[in-house]
Specification:
Helix content: 40-55%
Order of helices and strands: HHEEEHEHEEEHHHHHHHH
Radius of gyration: 30 Å
Strand content: 5-15%
Largest sheet: 5 strands, mixed
Protein name: Transposase
Length: 302
C-alpha cells in the first residue's frame, strides 16, 4: 500500500513542475525554469505481464533547452531491485517518447539518499553498457528553511524542505516558518501546501506539531486535517463527558448507600463525595459505605 509520505514526495512536483528547476541548483545542476509542463501517463507496463509504473512523469520545456522528461521517484528505503527498475524507466521512456529522460529520486533519510545516488552500471565492470546516475533530493542537500520570509518566497520548496527533513532535528523550525508564511496566503494556494506537508510527515513524530500549527496558526483552513483535529477534540470532550457522568453516578451511589443505612451525612462529607472525579476512589468508598459505622469512615486514611 502506498504511504502518504511516498505520495507527497513525488506529487508535489506534479503540483508545481517548476519546482524541479529550483531544486536542481541544490543538486549541482543548473536547469532553467520550464515554460511549459505536461503530466504524462505513469504506467510503463508492456504487453508482458510485468507492471512498471513510475511515480510521477512530467514533460518539461524550457526557453533555453529542448523538451525533456522528468521521472520522479519517491524512495522510503533501500531496495535492491530499484536501480534496475529505474534503468528500465529511463530506457523505456527514451524509446517511447524519443526524449532525454532525467530521473529524480526523493528521500527522507541520509542512508537511503546515499544508496540512491550511487551510480549503478549494467554489464561487466570493463563494459558498463548502461550507467544509471539519478539525481537525489533528500535531507543532505535540500535547504533548511526556517525564515518565514524565505518560506513565503517559495512555499512549495519550503514544503519539500519539510518533507525531506521530516526526521531531522530542524523540522520544528521549518514547520513553524512554513505555518507563519501561510497565515496570510490565499487559501487556494495554501490548501495543497498544507496537504502535501501533512502527507509527507505522516510517519514522522513531527506530524503532531504540524497538526497543532494547522489548528492554531491556520484556523481558517478547512481540510481533512483540520476536521480530524476537530473530531479528536469532540471525541475528547465526549470522553470527558462520559467520565464526568460516570463519576457523578458513582458519587450518587455512595450517598444512596449511606442514606439507606440511615447514617448521618454532613455537608462536608457530601461535598467531598460529589467533588470526587476518580471512579476507582468512588468504588472504594462505595465498598466501605456498606459496612462503615459512620459516614466519615468511608474515606479511610485517604
Amino acid at each position: 500500500m502506498v504511504s502518504p509520505p511516498h505520495e507527497a514526495m513525488h506529487r508535489i512536483f506534479q503540483h508545481d513542475p517548476g519546482l524541479f528547476s529550483r531544486v536542481s541548483r541544490y543538486l549541482g545542476v543548473d536547469m532553467p525554469p520550464p515554460v511549459k509542463a505536461t503530466a504524462l501517463p505513469t504506467d510503463l507496463t508492456e504487453t508482458v505481464p510485468v507492471e512498471r509504473r513510475v511515480d510521477t512523469l512530467l514533460r518539461l520545456e524550457t526557453a533555453e533547452r529542448d523538451a525533456f522528461l522528468l521521472a520522479v521517484e519517491a524512495q522510503g528505503r533501500k531496495h535492491p531491485d530499484k536501480p534496475a527498475a529505474w534503468a528500465y524507466y529511463a530506457a523505456h521512456l527514451w524509446t517511447k517518447y524519443k526524449l532525454p529522460t532525467a530521473l529524480l529520486v526523493v528521500c527522507q533519510d541520509h542512508a537511503t539518499a546515499r544508496w540512491a545516488q550511487q551510480p549503478v552500471s549494467s554489464g561487466p565492470p570493463q563494459m558498463p553498457t548502461l550507467t544509471l546516475r539519478p539525481l537525489v533530493a533528500g535531507p543532505h542537500n535540500m535547504p533548511v528553511i526556517t525564515d518565514p520570509e524565505e518560506a513565503r518566497a517559495d512555499l512549495v520548496l519550503a514544503s519539500l524542505a519539510a518533507i525531506t527533513h521530516a526526521a531531522e532535528p530542524v523540522i520544528n523550525g521549518i514547520l513553524k516558518a512554513l505555518s507563519t508564511a501561510l497565515r496570510d496566503t490565499q487559501e487556494s494556494i495554501a490548501d495543497p501546501i498544507i496537504e502535501f506537508t501533512a502527507q509527507g510527515l505522516a510517519r514522522s513524530p513531527a506530524k503532531h506539531l504540524w497538526r497543532n500549527l494547522v489548528a492554531v496558526d491556520l484556523s481558517f483552513y478547512k481540510s481533512y486535517i483540520a476536521e480530524e483535529i476537530r473530531d479528536e477534540g469532540r471525541e475528547q470532550g465526549r470522553e470527558q463527558g462520559r467520565e464526568q457522568g460516570c463519576a457523578q453516578r458513582g458519587a450518587e451511589d455512595v450517598l444512596l448507600v449511606l442514606e439507606q443505612r440511615g447514617l448521618e451525612v454532613s455537608e462536608g462529607v457530601r461535598g467531598r463525595i460529589m467533588e470526587c472525579q476518580d471512579p476507582e476512589v468512588l468504588r472504594r468508598w462505595l465498598a466501605r459505605a456498606v459496612s462503615a459505622p459512620v459516614a466519615e469512615e468511608i474515606f479511610g486514611e485517604e
